[in-house]
Amino acid sequence: MPFRTGVPDIAAFPLSPWDRFARRLRTHPYRFAYEDIAGLQRLRSVLADHLRQFRALRASADQIVIVEGPQSALVLIAQALVDPGDPAVLEDPGCPFAIAFEARGRASCRSRSTSTGSTRRRRRRRARAS
Q1: pTM for the full predicted model
Q2: pLDDT-based confidence at 126, cuts 50/70/90?
Q3: Does residue 93 share a domain with residue 47?
Q4: How far apart are the C-alpha atoms of 48 and 61, rounded to whole Å?
Q5: How many other C-beta atoms can be found within 10 angstroms of the C-beta atom of residue 101?
Q6: Do residues 75 and 97 make contact, with C-beta atoms less than 8 angstroms apart?
Q7: Cis peptide leading into 29, omega within 30 of 0?
Q8: 74 shares a domain with 35
Q9: Within this chain, do residues 73 and 130 fall inside the same structural domain, yes or no?
């Protein structure tokens, strides 16, 4: 199995369910219609239920937005929640797509993480000091 970003394990792909889905999609009269801009309501509802049950997060389907991938999610977050020049603490090593914050003119501080959570404590201390 290749451990590279964006390379799926084709042997593990569920071909039979995918074929059934594709056949149903071809016969669906609204297959090319626009859906809700935040993503399919049913998918967002299922995700909200999963977050409540397994992550103890109180989220509604209206609070979930489905995007194409991690880069799209981070760009959306950077644009919506962080003003230019605001600091953004990014875990190092971390998500290679986190440069979305830097690309939007956000200052970033790369922070090493450890198994004991010392990064979190350092971030809290830095936040209190400023």
Answers
A1: 0.50
A2: low
A3: no
A4: 6
A5: 21
A6: no
A7: no
A8: no
A9: yes
How many angstroms separate the CA atoms of 20 and 73, rounded?
29
Query: Mind listing the pLDDT tens digit for each residue in 78-118?
Result: 888 877 777 777 666 666 666 666 666 655 556 666 655 55
Q: Are residues 126 and 99 in the same domain?
A: yes
Given a contact cutoff of 8 angstroms between Cβ atoms, the answer to whether 38 and 64 are in contact is yes
- Residue 52 shares a structural domain with residue 96: no
Beta bridge partners of 91: 111
Residues 102 and 48 occupy one common structural domain: no
Per-residue model confidence (pLDDT) at position 13: 84
Distance, CA of 21 to CA of 115 (rounded, Å): 41
pLDDT in tens, 27-69: 776 666 777 889 989 999 999 999 999 989 999 999 999 998 8
Provide the residue range defining the domain that includes 113. Answer: 68-130
